[in-house]
Amino acid sequence: MVIILIIMPYALLPSAETDNAQIIVLVAIFGALFTIVEYSSSSPSLVEFRDAPPFNRVRFSALFATVFCLSMIFKGVDSPGVLSEYFQNSGSVIGEAIDFPYSPVRLMVIMMPDGTDPVVIQHLRDAAGLSYLVSVFSVIWFVILLRLYRWPRRAGAFNVWINLPTFDPTAGGDVVKRLQRDGRVNVILGFLLPFLVPAVVKLVAALGTPINLDNPQTLIWTVSAWAFLPASILMRGVALSRVAQMIEVQRRKAYDRTGPTHSSIY
């Protein structure tokens, strides 16, 4: 699935450059090997919540759906079809509906330098609107699954070391408060990133390095990252808050069983 995700824009776009084929294949193989090694090893290194589905499944599905939708939009430019026309029309309607003052889509449009081809602006608006809608739905869907399946403890114990390999519970301070703080920071950052990224890109362009989105593949991955990363960070914030809540509940249960005398070990 990782290989399919990475090569999808190259495979679906008939006008893609053939010189990048080897690089794309190498990146796809590296991504697949990294995923296999990470999920098969007993000691994790980077991937969080690998033993607490469907957190990573929802995130991957959101990215996969975003890249697929955008690839179909640009596929219809050179090879029109019923499916590509459907995605083009949907992206156009959603993009125009979300393109209001101070919205993330409007900020993505105005970050483009003066003189940009109006066709590129239209494609950017359609892609940004559709990808942003997918990211919002992915966050809502994760929250629904969290409530329905009482995530993360659907069955068995929750291993903090396996699921939070970058979190050090012995770094100092109360674990629950640290998780709650990190969760709030991630939620705020995930909400603000769609607004901050266009502003940063506009600032960088003003300093002499304007962004070029004439290449459809570049536009697909740029817009996908712009929509996916904030949604992923926001879901991580919700997940950390949920883990903190779970630990606090366990503490209360242990306190009720042992009483105040032994509660200090928690």
UniProtKB/TrEMBL annotation:
Residues annotated as transmembrane: 20-37, 58-77, 130-149, 187-207, 219-243
Entry annotated with the keyword Transmembrane helix: yes
Superkingdom as given in the UniProt entry: Bacteria
Keywords: Membrane, Transmembrane, Transmembrane helix
Protein's recorded name: Uncharacterized protein
